[in-house]
Each structure stands twice: as structure tokens, then as C-alpha cells.
Fold this protein.
Amino acid sequence: MPVRDSLKKRQRVNKIMFAATAVCAGVSILSLFCILGYIAYKGFSSLSWSFFTRLPKPVGETGGGIANSILGSVKIVGLASALGIPVGILGGVYLAEYGRGLAGFCIRYAADVLSGVPSIVIGIFAYALIVMPMKRFSALSASAALAAIMIPIVLRNTEEFVRLVPLSIREAGLALGIPRWRVILFIVIPTAGRGLITGALLAVSRIAGETAPLIFTAFGNRFWDNGLLEPMASLPHTIFTYAIAPYEDWHRQAWAAALILMGLVLAINAGARYFLKPSTGVSH
């Protein structure tokens, strides 16, 4: 086959593959905007100041708000972050700096398996491990379940970002006679700090929308909670409860709550992008 014909054939194949990938990317983006747009269309009309500040009305009455669910989500996700992020970051630093043997392989394998476990299974595990011995649903058990989902995400992201720190920076610190643990603590981790924050924010956005673990742990509450050892309302659980109820007003509130939750997740993802961009110089 002449060289010119071969070149034209490769150019045609390249154009076809480029068009196919562009179409697939367009379909993906269009699907995302359709979902986001439909949630905004259905939920925006039910948003009001009272929706953010009042408790839910009794069953059968219209109106009310989801203030307890918003505050409950903040508490549960905040406690889960306090439990999961330190463990994930320390584990990721260990894997990046010392995890080259069998122990490192086992930890990575366990983290990868755990990240693929369905969230409902983790919820059942937390129910058996915490809820049943305590004989009560609680925000603490919900936070523990969400932390278990968060740890492998933070761990693997931390390992990747710490590995991106140039070896010359470590060698410069060691050449000055600084112990390795001080080099890691005061040089490597601050250098990878923006990446670690990005990984943590992505993990927070992941658990913010989880529903299944909350059904088995926090259970939900139509009133203000009395602490972390009591059942607690949350946005995902409220959306689930309102969506399956036979009341039209609850359906409208479910759409509005979904819009609020979607806004929170998008804000967290935007924050992650903000922290990541100056660190890597990657164009987004």
C-alpha cells in the first residue's frame, strides 16, 4: 500500500475516533445538565426562607421546612470527616513513604476492595457493630459508617499526591541532617498540602449524598436532635422519606431538598478544583 494511501486511511480513522469520543463526551455532559436542570426546575419553586429555618410539619399538613435535616447533615458529615480524614491521610503518607513491602500491598488491596463495597453493606455492618450493641440509632453510628467509606478515598488520594512531591525535596532535607520523620512532617506534607485538601474535599462530597448507610444508622428524626447518641435527621434520608411518601407536598419538598444537597456537593467540588489547580498547574 502506498505511503500516501496509508496516511489518508490513518487520518480518516483518527477523525472517526475523534468524532466518536466527542459525541460520547457530549452525551455525558448533556445527561448531567439534564439531571441538574430537572432537579432545579422541580425544586426551585419550593425554596423559601421558612424551608431553611423551620421543622417539618406533622404528617398530612402542608408546608414546613428541613432545618433539622440540614443541621443534621452538617453534624454527621463533620463528625465522619473528623474520624475518617486523619486516618486516611496518615495511612496515605505511610503508603507513599514506607509502603513498599507486603504490608503496603495488603493495605492498598484492602483499601481498593473497601472502596468498591456497596454503601448499603457498610451501613448494615455499622448497624450490627454499633447500633445493635448500643440498642439505639444514632448520629455516631452514621458518622462511623460514612468514615469507613471516606477512609480508602482519602488514603489513596493522599498516597498519589505525596508521591508527586519531588524526591529532590526530601533529599535536600535529609542532606541538612533533618530526621526523616521531620522531613515528612514539615516538608513533604506541607508541599502536598493542596492535594491532600483536594482529596479530603472529594471524599466529603462523596459521603454527603450517601443514603443507604443512614437508613440503618441515623434512621432520621422529625425534630431537633438531642445529641450524637440519638437518631438524627439528614438531607439524604429526608429526600428518601419524602420521595416515597404518598403526599404531593412532600414530593415537592423532596425535590427542593435534593436541589440543596446538589448545591452543597457542587460547592464542595468547586472548592476541590480551586485547591488543586494552583498546585499542579493542570488546566481544567
In short: Confidence is low (pLDDT under 50) at residues 280-284.
